[in-house]
Amino acid sequence: KGRTLNGYKKELTDANAKYEIAKTDKESRIKEKTRDIQAYVAGDSEPQLIKKRELTVATLAEIEAERKNVLDQQFQRQTDIDALNGLKGDQIKREAVLASDTSGTEKLRAEVETLRQKDADLRTEVARLAGEVRNRKVNGESTKNELAELLLRRSRIQKEYTIANCDTQEDITYQALEHTRLCNYAGEDLRKAATITLNAFNEGREDHLTNIRERGNAVQATIKDLQLLIDDQGRELAKTIDAHLKAEAGLLETDEDDDARLMEIAEEIRACPGKKPEDDEEWLALERAIPQATLALGPSVADVLEELETRKSGAEAMRDKYSDALRAADTVAQGKERLAELDGEQKELAQKIVTNNGKLHRIREYVRAESQLITDKVNGRFNVLEFRLFKLRKNGEVQECCDAMVEGIPYAELSAGETISADVDGSTVLGTYYDIRAPLFVDECEQLTPTIEAPTQIIELH
Q1: Keywords for this entry (predicted)?
Q2: What residues contact 131, with CB distance under 8 A and at least 6 apart?
């Protein structure tokens, strides 16, 4: 009472889930109790278990005594380890001394150093010449840029001279004509003044043209010097490039010869190695002493302790097993009683699950019947349309939906005429249900053969 159907259904489902968990737990505990009882019944007798446990306890005491003895000997073993490491160190040092005995190869090694120094000097010279080539190219480009600027300046001066000379000729012609006119028609004073003006003009003109010519001559002289400098730089650059190419070729040739010689020297040095350790008495004595010291040392303390710990863990497990078996002898009867209780509890849980499943089944049947009644009631109001309002899922649950159809055909797959009929039917039923009377505008009526009938005004559009 006071609960919804879905809420009650959820309560039953949750209760079933809890019952299933409890039932599974009971099953595992029943199996465990059964195994314990069967193990005791099928095992040794109580006196046999007591004797085996006593033997296991004695084994644990022996292991502990052996472990104490190993720990007591650890200091002496560390001393032996230090002595062994000293022997190995002496052997390594002796091998180094023997390997450094290179008598007979000093000249070969000196030749190797000479060849390497020669190669380094050649590479340094090639690098120097390459840098000189780059610098000469940069200087040549700078000189050419300076020459280009001077040629441009000379062109400007020539143009300036041409313009100044043309302007002056026009002025000369004009001044000469004026002078002639004044001499012919003016008095003596005016003729003198005109002559003075003409002379002054001619002197200024010559000074200006002379200045332009001097500047042009200076630029021209600089241009000639730069052209000579460019020629010299080109010759020097060609010489430097030639020297660089020759140096590179010489380096390649020398590398091939030197590499071949270095390989020969390496072979000669390998053919004359230092003294072999197998021929040295001191090294052989150390070689014999090391295995003896290693054998006397024995296994490491960590390995021995690890083995003892493994044996101890196994013995403790057996001791605990025998103790558990002896304790189980006193609790077999209690175990059987508890087993009966667990079996009864499990059956009770199973009955509760069956009861709840029956209730859930009746709820699902009710929901299916209710959904069918709702569907029939809704579809009874329509003449053309029909609706699928519920779907039945695989687990028996009912899922709500709303799919419109006409004679089993989905609404999306209807023809234009069937769609119009379905829309008119839906509008008519909904208008009647909500008590709304509104005209219906129907487009594409030419696709309908029968007349549209509805309890409202129909406005057909063609």
Answers
A1: Coiled coil
A2: none
Give Cβ neighbours of residue 301 (< 8 Å, ≥ 6 apart).
70, 71, 74, 77
What tokens does 413 get? 């797959």
For residue 173, pLDDT over 60 is answered with no
Q: Which domains are present in the chain?
A: 5-96+284-362 (no CATH), 106-271 (1.10.287.950), 380-460 (no CATH)
Q: Whole-prediction pTM value?
A: 0.33
Between the CA of residue 95 and those of 22, 250, 275, what are the distances in Å? 76, 43, 9
The pLDDT-based confidence of 186 (bands split at 50, 70, 90) is: very low
Higher pLDDT, 427 or 43: 427
Cα separation, 41 vs 170, whole angstroms: 147
Give the number of residues written for the chain: 462
The CA distance from 301 to 74, in Å, is 7
SS3 state at 386: strand
Q: What is the pLDDT of residue 405?
A: 92
pLDDT in tens, 56-65: 888 888 888 8
d(CA 388, CA 372): 10
Is 385 strand, coil or helix? coil
Q: Minimum mean pLDDT among 28-42, 116-130, 285-299: which range?
A: 28-42
Minimal CA–CA distance to 103: which of 216, 288, 269, 285?
269
Rounded Cα distance between 200 and 180, Å, is 16
Distance, CA of 70 to CA of 60 (rounded, Å): 15
Q: How far is CA 395 from CA 13, 15, 270, in A?
A: 13, 18, 86
| Burial label, 455 (beta-carbon count in 10 A; 0-12, 13-18, 19+) | exposed
**How far apart (Å, rounded) are the C-alpha atoms in residues 129 and 124?**
9
